[in-house]
């Protein structure tokens, strides 16, 4: 299990000729926050659109670098509709309040954890309690601009973060 934040700043390197094609600026999740869609490697600016690496182009998410097969794996965000939509809407997971659908605050999402071989999100680090806690990815997780919602039954699945990391 890896923290999404740990990828930010890693170089993205091609396997075919060892070229550094950028560095990870951000990790892009699908709207439901269940899987990594890919990586933002250049936010773009006035004269260029954002550049992304779709998950399917990633060979390895290593500790010190992300390896892709070739430079052709880097795309303009506009060429990858699912990623472009997430970027255009500007949804940000970190810092979202987490509440049950009955209005009970569970904390603030500080980080997400994912499987580096599959890109599947495993859960979220929460703050707001006495100790950092971990919420395994629940079914029915709903994100919004300021608040994410979960079923009230999810509250019983929250465990201490260090316990979750020990299990992995």
Structural description of this entry:
With about 170 residues, the protein is mainly beta. It has two domains: about 1-90, PRC-barrel domain (SH3 type barrels, Roll); about 95-165, SH3 type barrels, CATH 2.30.30. The chain is about 10% helix and about 40% strand. It is built from two helices and 16 strands. It has helices spanning about 80-90, 160-165, and strands at about 1-5, 10-15, 20-25, 25-30, 35-40, 50-55, 60, 65-70, 75, 95-100, 105-115, 120-125, 135, 140-145, 145-150, 160.
Enter the CATH topology name of the largest domain: SH3 type barrels
Treating each run of at least 4 consecutive H or I residues as one helix, how many helices? 2
Low-confidence stretches: none
Order of helices and strands: EEEEEEEEEHEEEEEEEH
Structural class, by secondary structure, is mainly beta
Any guess at the CATH architecture of the largest domain? Roll
Helix fraction, binned, reads: under 10%
What's the count of strands? 16
Per DSSP, what share of the residues sits in E-state strands of 2 or more residues? 35-45%
| Total domain count | 2
Average predicted local confidence, pLDDT: 89
Overall geometry comes to: globular
CATH superfamily of the largest domain: PRC-barrel domain
Kindly report how far apart the N and C termini lie.
6 Å
């Amino acid at each position: 299990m890896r923290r999404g934040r740990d990828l930010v700043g890693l170089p993205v390197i091609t396997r075919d000729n060892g070229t550094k094609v950028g560095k990870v600026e951000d990790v892009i999740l699908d709207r439901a926050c269940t899987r990594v869609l890919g990586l933002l490697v250049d936010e773009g600016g006035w004269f260029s659109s954002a550049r992304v690496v779709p998950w399917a182009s990633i060979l390895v998410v290593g500790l010190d670098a992300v390896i892709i097969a070739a430079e052709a794996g880097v795309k303009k965000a506009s060429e990858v509709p699912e990623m472009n939509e997430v970027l255009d809407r500007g949804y940000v997971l970190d810092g979202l309040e987490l509440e049950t659908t009955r209005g009970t605050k569970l904390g603030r999402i500080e980080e997400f954890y994912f499987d580096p071989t599959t890109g599947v999100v495993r859960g979220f680090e929460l703050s707001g309690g006495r100790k950092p806690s971990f919420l395994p990815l629940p079914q029915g997780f709903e994100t919004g601009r300021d608040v994410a919602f979960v079923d009230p039954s999810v509250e019983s699945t929250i465990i201490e973060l260090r316990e979750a990391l020990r299990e992995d």
